[in-house]
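Hello,

Our lab assistant flagged a job as stuck in the queue for most of the afternoon. It eventually completed. Since we weren't sure the result was trustworthy after the delay, we are filing this so someone can double-check. Below is the sequence as submitted and the structure that was eventually returned. Let us know if re-running is recommended.
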Amino acid sequence: MNGEMHAPPRVHFCGIGGTAMVAGARLAIEAGWEVHGSDNPLYPPTSEMVAALGIPVAKGYRAKNLDWGPDRVIIGNVLSRGNPEVETVLDRRLHYISLPEWIKDAVLRTRRSVAICGTHGKTSTTALTAWLLDRAGLDPGYLIGGQPFGFSHSARLGRPGTPFVIEGDEYDTAFFDKRAKFFHYLPEIAVVTSLEYDHGDIYRDLEAIEQAFRWMLRQIPSSGRLILCADSPGAMALNTHAFCPVLTYGFHESANYCIASIHHQAGKTCMAVHRRGVPWATFEASLVGRHNLQNAAAALAVADVLGASLDGMQDGLRTFPGVRRRMEIFHEAQGIPFIDDFAHHPTAVAETIAAARQRWPESRLRVLCEPRSNTMVTRQFEDALVEA
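-- returned structure --
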């Protein structure tokens, strides 16, 4: 009957403390779903991000956490068989789904998906791209796999028909779906920042990772764009596998968006960019390090393709506030800054140290590395880490 009230759909996030899961929960809340979650005890910054959702979150995994009758159960990719909630979902034949699947159907089908992929720089580039599009007035939605400064949350739904910038992780989707997460993201535009061997716990070799990226490229429509880092041989090798126009960015002189020159002044980096071989514009940013400038060029390429104004892009790059745990100065004592960074691959570690040397050229660096990633603990990168 007319005017009849319908209860909102209900969804339970098992493993809500994952960076992507808490962002997905934010999207579900904005979409009008009733959201609950569960996880083991959490610690900052994740605990703070989950608390900010303002929803019921159970501590520990138990069958009774699902007694409230959710219509969907989203199972995080850290959960597997033997987990009490996974077993309950299977025993009760509840409708379960992975987070990437849910995002594909509930969010991306009605939006212009921009997938930021690659071995390095995904989180920073996703945040940069979302920030540039936002400052340029394109009102994007986004899902960032970290805690961005400047935005109130790590995810925003946006409106149907607008760009949605999403971090395209190549890690597997769930215990029941071993495909890469980015396989679900329906990219209209895909960025590949780099392509190296990583995730040794799920990929047997570099060829297996390259194959995952090639499968993802098959989903870009012919009217879309593939944007590759010209400085990464691994990324550029994907050029011949594209079914759409390809654009490139970086320091290489052949890049469509070429970082032609840089200079530093008053704690800022000024970056002159040539577009398709012609001087285009100069951009100012509070970024240091070759890798961060490459990330900025990728974001500029996406924004240009989507029709952002040059003034909006310049304002966006100048005001970009950064991402937590990406060259973050979290403490200072007696004039000594303490920096936190998420780098966990030898290439990323080396780039981060180089960026620190560039920013503090007269200082002595002390570098502490906590080898916690799934690949690090396999010791496959042991020699390369020592060298980095």
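-- support follow-up --
The delay was a queue issue, not a problem with the job. The result is valid. DSSP finds eleven helices and 19 strands in the chain. The radius of gyration is 21 Å.
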